[in-house]
Amino acid sequence: MADEVAEAMSEGRHLLVQAGTGTGKSLGYLVPAMLHDKRVVVATATLALQHQLVERDLPRLVEAVKGVKGLDTSYAVLKGRSNYACLHRIRAGVPDDQGTLVDVPTGSMAEKVLELRAWAEEETEAGGTGERDNAPRHTDREWRQVAVNHRECLGASKCPFGAECFAELAREKAQRSHLIVTNHSLLAIDAIEDVPMIPDYDTVVIDEAHELTARVTQAATDELGANDIERAARRAIRWTESSAGDPAGDLEDAAGQLAEAIEATTAGRIDNVSTQLADALVLVRDAARACLSAFPRESGGEGEGDAGRTQAKGMIQEVFVNAERMAAGSQADVLWLGEARDRFPARLHVAPLQVWGPMRDKLLTDKTVIFTSATLMLGGDFSAVATSLGLKPTEREGSIVAPADDETALPWKGLDVGSPFDYGQQSILYVARHLPQPGRDGLGQAQLDEICDLVDALDGRTLGLFSSRRAAETAAEAVRAKLPHLTTLAQGDAQLPELAKQFVEDPHTCLFGTLSLWQGLDVPGNTCQLVIIDRIPFPRPDDPLMSARAKAADASGGNGFMEVSATHAALLLAQGAGRLIRTTTDRGIVAVLDPRLETARYGRFLKASLPPMWSTTDPALVRQALKRLGETAS
């Protein structure tokens, strides 16, 4: 892998590398990245991998090559501005809805915010990074009281605390470094959204690349609600009240019009925008533009008022940009209305129909990109992933993937470096073919009985991966009732790190949960010897973006189900099954309770995406194997 990565970097050719758990793929790209003669960016999807690179792999690598003369081994971590504490907000206060600077927070979160402020000052004195990940435990709402986004930031030249700014110091360190570690979202914002965040670089290595399309989509998704507009208008009053007319009041009126239009709109994907909603979005866009024009020019002076002005203008700018995008009704975007939840009213969302175009135009044509992950070969080859990234063209025009007649198609190579694990000897794939097909009403009694029988045979040591929170909780209740001598944990009982800790410490434990467990849990050894998957993880039929992408694929002559739904399911299945074997000594069974994996035509594609486990549909054989595993582990 290291040889291929080094060659791709020197030749400027894109490379896709599938490297399973245990191959040491991080060193497979870090070594050639450190030896490369130009700056390299490494982008990860998860915080855990970022920590592994910075706290373990890079220090070891630097130590290993310290005898090489002239080699630049400098590296830095770079995150979005809102991931760093803001000293101006902490020391000068937080503007409230009237633009007034409030020195001390009030209410139930006051104590936590004061703790975060004290921590940030300690970080300054100790020369720390001020990163959110190092802060005392807190909520998103509490963190917003001590941080700002890029629109709210005064800028280093105007801020009285610019010389000490954590975000600016991180960027300065990145400017001096040969290797920069960041995340997919920041990479997408920098390369695709044209917001300069990362110093110029030659090559980017994208680890956990199976996540990239989703992260790029997420970074390019915008939201708008009537309450956002009202809040922005209230913030703008102080700065626009001397203007002719009442621009902030007009914007607040427009928010009311949008609220009425949203009330008259059914939740879900909006293929045909009603006249009422279209008019309301145009009204909001124009009112926000007028409000922006009413802001007075900056005098150039410094002071506390600048923070309120910057934040207010940033909020209006965000409303304008989002309303303008939604009002445009571009065929390249998908618009939908989310459902109202509890105290939170319904909001409009807009996301790109496809991301291969921006990926190719803004990133792949300018930089050399190394994509790597344990799951890049879906259905047995790289085609599905390569087409979603704009590398491998398709024959169809108008597809959600790159068209075959595209003259800008880019050269690339795929490499599967294999795995150190003998899946055929270490693991069994059990498909419960005898069970009924999953229904819309969640887990049936047959599935619950099967789960209890499998767990009982192994006496715990089970990770349950479910398609919904309700299914996970239903299964947990059934196991608790039938097997009270075991400890059964469900996602939501505690924070994920605490649940994982309990799962590892007590072998007679089951842990049941949803998506964050499918991809984010690493528990090698006897802790996890049975992974139960309740159903093939197809996207929900009413998922606005997935359904729009499938419809677009069908309209262009393709198969939307296979290109979107089956590919999504294959990726998640591979990730979920990957929770089982984490070392060369692990043994266990992946049990899929959905007979369609064995009986449906698309089952072959899904199974080809999984590790090459020994496969069976015999429930008696599997129960015997589980009992032997349990006895050996005990």
From TrEMBL:
It catalyses: ATP + H2O = ADP + phosphate + H(+). Pfam families: DEAD, Helicase_C_2. InterPro entries: ATP-dep_Helicase_C (IPR006555), DEAD/DEAH_box_helicase_dom (IPR011545), DinG/Rad3-like (IPR045028), Helic_SF1/SF2_ATP-bd_DinG/Rad3 (IPR014013), Helicase_ATP-bd (IPR014001), P-loop_NTPase (IPR027417). Gene3D superfamilies: P-loop containing nucleotide triphosphate hydrolases. It comes from the Bacteria. Coiled coil: none annotated. SMART domains: DEXDc, HELICc2. Its cofactor is [4Fe-4S] cluster. Its EC number is 5.6.2.3. It is an enzyme of class 5 (isomerase). One of its GO terms (molecular function) is ATP binding. The keyword Metal-binding does not apply. PANTHER family: DNA REPAIR DEAD HELICASE RAD3/XP-D SUBFAMILY MEMBER, REGULATOR OF TELOMERE ELONGATION HELICASE 1. This is ATP-dependent helicase DinG. It comes from Nocardioides zhouii.
